[in-house]
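Take a look at the protein record below and flag anything odd:
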Amino acid sequence: MKSNIEVKLAERLASIITQLNDAKVLSIASLAEEFNVSVRTVQRDLNERLSFLPIHESKGSYSLALSALGKLSPKDIRHFAAISGIEALYPNLDTHFICSILSQAIDSPFIIKGHNYEPKHKIESNLNKLEATIQRNKCINFNYKQKQYINIHPYRLVNSKGIWYLAAVDKSTLKTFHLSEITQILEQADSFTTKQSFINAIENDEGIFFSETKFEVVVKVSKDIAPYFKRRNVFPNQIIEKELESGELLVSSKVAIAHQILPLIKYWIPEIQVISPTEIKEQLFQDLIEYINK
């Protein structure tokens, strides 16, 4: 549990950040009076605890660099979290919480551990090129896995589990391309008109297997691994249909292709059983037989 001193410190720093972000010019004396602390404490706040901010000091007055104004706004951070798909990761994105997360000068009680990510140098060039073409709705040509793609309509750059993909339409079919494997991107003079159905498919799907039509897979999950499925969505578009008296779960998932769920089912064997459809049960059985024979 945080002490009262720690709570007051976080609240004070959050307030100072907010005031700086609102383009206010602050003085040591006024801050000391506002928070009922010593001048030395406020000096430590500005010079040590908030040293990660580009704060300018002039004749005892402190302000945030013009280039940084608004960039640490809680509203902006909440918006970034939402479009990045990580909003649910944080229980409360208020100013107090954001201050605790961002501050490098305080021993923060928070540690966020995520996925591994691709090296920046492999994708940065493609990200920059494709960002511009997507914004202008320009058709592109490129090479991908020893094949040339012509007149492709780029829709979105999608990050899934730390890997960047291009969601694009090829001859009326929505596809995904691993960004680091795309080469020789050439923007064309022709433009294209986006279709809302493709945008909806990209934005509403939890993964990278985009499709306007999906099929349902139902599995039975053992009581030993049921807590994992109750804690978070293990499968794409997961729904817990029923909790059995034995503690087992009936779980459904809607997927575009078999490969979207088969590797996940294999990961949980033998604590999981496919109920339907028959095609998935048969494919899983065949894959296991081939593995045993090897």
Remarks:
- The chain has three domains: 4-102, 120-203, 215-293.
- Residues 143 and 227 are 44 Å apart (CA to CA).
